[in-house]
Write a structure and sequence with these properties.
about 300 residues; 10 helices; globular; Rossmann fold; single chain; binds zinc ion; 2 domains; 10 strands; 4-stranded parallel β-sheet; alpha/beta
């Protein structure tokens, strides 16, 4: 009799271990929230906007991190191993993700949120796709639709809620898009030039009619070349540009040097590949776009630095 009880207890323990290993069940037997892993802070934010509190969202990238050169930590593989869904930007932004997902093992849906977008190509680098699709606000309709598709795959009961919240969010995106156009159009034509550290704003330039020049290409992996520095200094002088812009996720040193050499101000810090800290205006995708555009327009409205 006693042996039977022991055996029963052991079985219960093994069963709980097996269930814990599967994830998704809490001790009370209730379904825990599905875990969604998002690679970038931008994707994490939009997923939270759409999913509300129906899922737990874990962002791999820290706020202010640079996704081009990110070094995954062991905790990332553990979170992917526990996750029900992985959302990635794609367009070759997260080169480090494939190996990470392999380490995590198992199988789960991986949804590329840029699916459906026709990418811009980088002419200087043999036509690889430019990953920074998020700076054309219209592209975010694809991000939203792909995120909704992923969420419904793992939580079909939430479909109605996800679709409703996505529709409300898309309305905000459309308002944002109109506002960005108005802001840029308020600048004189010869001031619609954006000089930054790395080439994250080409979609922005295409969508809103801004000429974009950057020190580094679309990835921060390559080192800036002296000829690029010289070219940018010349451009600032030739076009009488009042300000150049550093980025929150890129080392500002070289661009500060260019500003000094060319006689321009640092117009401010733009959010490029990461949103800002919670509580900062740039702490959401919509907030970061508003912050960037206002920073750009206000600085470019100023007179160029005298006597250069
Ligand atoms: Zn970038």
């Amino acid at each position: 009799m006693r042996n039977k009880v022991v055996l029963f207890v052991v079985s219960i323990i093994s069963l709980s271990i097996i269930m814990a290993g599967c994830g998704g069940k809490s001790e009370g037997g209730e379904r825990e929230k599905p875990l969604v892993v998002a690679t970038t802070t931008i994707i994490a934010n939009i997923t939270e906007e759409i999913a509300g509190d129906r899922v737990e969202v874990y962002g791999i990238m820290p706020v202010g991190g640079d996704p081009h050169i990110y070094q995954p930590v062991p905790g990332d593989a553990r979170m992917i191993a526990r996750s029900d869904l992985v959302l990635l930007n794609g367009l070759e932004l997260e080169g480090w993700l494939t190996e990470l997902a392999q380490h995590a093992g198992g199988s789960r849906p991986m949804v590329t949120v840029t699916d459906g977008i026709t990418p811009l190509e980088d002419k200087q680098r043999h036509g690889e796709p430019d990953p920074h699709a998020w700076f054309d606000v219209q592209n975010m309709h694809y991000y939203v639709d792909n995120i909704v598709r992923g969420l419904i795959t793992i939580d079909p009961d939430g479909a109605e809620i996800y679709n409703e919240r996505a529709a409300a969010y898309k309305k905000k995106l459309d308002e944002l898009d109109v506002w960005v156009h108005e802001q840029i159009e308020s600048l004189p034509g010869d001031r619609r030039i954006l000089i930054t550290s790395h080439d994250a704003f080409r979609y922005f330039g295409e969508a809103y009619g801004v000429r974009v020049m950057a020190l580094q290409g679309i990835s921060t992996e390559a080192q800036p070349q002296t000829k690029d520095v010289v070219e940018l200094v010349r451009a600032v002088r030739n076009y009488n540009i009042p300000a150049v812009f550093i980025e929150t996720s890129v080392n500002p040193k070289m661009l500060e040097q260019i500003a000094r050499d060319a006689g321009a101000r640092i117009g401010g810090e733009l959010f490029s590949d990461s949103i800002g800290q919670p509580g900062h205006e740039g702490g959401t995708y919509i907030g970061m776009v508003r912050y960037n555009v206002r920073t750009f327009v206000e600085s470019m409205m100023q007179e160029p630095v005298a006597g250069k």
